[in-house]
Amino acid sequence: MKLRPNRMRDLLREDRPLIGGHAIFSDPAYVEFLAYCGFDWIFIDGEHLGTSVQGCYDLVRAADAVGMASVVRVSTKNVHSHIAFAETGVNALMIPHLITAEDAVDLKASLRFPPMGKRGIAGNTRTSNYGLGHTAREYLEDVDTAIMAAAMIEEESAVHNLPAIIATGDVELYSIGTSDLAGSMGLSGQTTHPRVTEAYELAVKTLADAKQIFSAPAATPEAAQKAIAAGARLILASTPQIIGNRLTEFAAACR
Questions:
Q1: Which candidate, 16, 127, 129, 223, has a CA 20 to 30 Å from the CA of 201?
Q2: What is the spatial distance between Cα 97 and Cα 76, in angstroms, rounded to a whole number?
Q3: How many beta carbons lie within 10 A of that of residue 138, not counting itself?
Q4: Pure H helices in the chain
Q5: Mean pLDDT in runs of 10 for the chain (255 residues)?
Q6: Residue 184, CA distances (Å) to 99, 155, 193, 201, 216 in order
Q7: 0.70 exceeded by the pTM?
């Protein structure tokens, strides 16, 4: 039995953008539904939606079953307190509010086993096939199948620190949070303010120029194409907005 493949790594080898959706409902059927709609990956939210470790297990199993990749965002950047999420078999673990190069180093270290990192060793979890079909050393040393370190860039200071963060080589997948970025600039709720737009575009350019993998939100195909043109490999469809708008339009038209 081979080690569990990291579906996100496999998909990123393909020369195309990858379309993802929010797990706005903690139900495996919703993950299956998105897969049948043509989505490539699912975004599981342990921060704002409060998805539990057990909930993450259920959603990741569903994603695995339909060939989708999976990303979970935990509630704080202290990933040592959220390592149970990594044992679910999720493909990438994302922390919010990564600000410094030191944060990036700590993130990667928390997800890698000694001597490459500081992650506690457990060889009988789902991510290790429950310890079956391979040696402990094969599991502990296999970097290609290992969980990806992902981070939200959400502060103005983090945008300016991006070159140093990238230089560590410890973050494999990025996302830029415009709402908190605006808040960090004293512009809460003003995500289209010129200063916020300028900071967002600087972050995107920095990541694209450094050939980093990053995701961008999109509520329309036009927004998705613009993000892809700017270098985004992952598109996170604003599924609550898309579904909500379409259903609202349908209900209004019927009346």
A1: 16
A2: 8
A3: 13
A4: 7-12, 28-36, 53-65, 83-86, 101-111, 136-141, 156-168, 178-184, 194-209, 221-229, 239-254
A5: 87 97 93 97 94 96 98 87 92 97 96 91 89 88 89 97 98 96 95 96 97 96 96 95 94 96
A6: 12, 5, 13, 16, 19
A7: yes
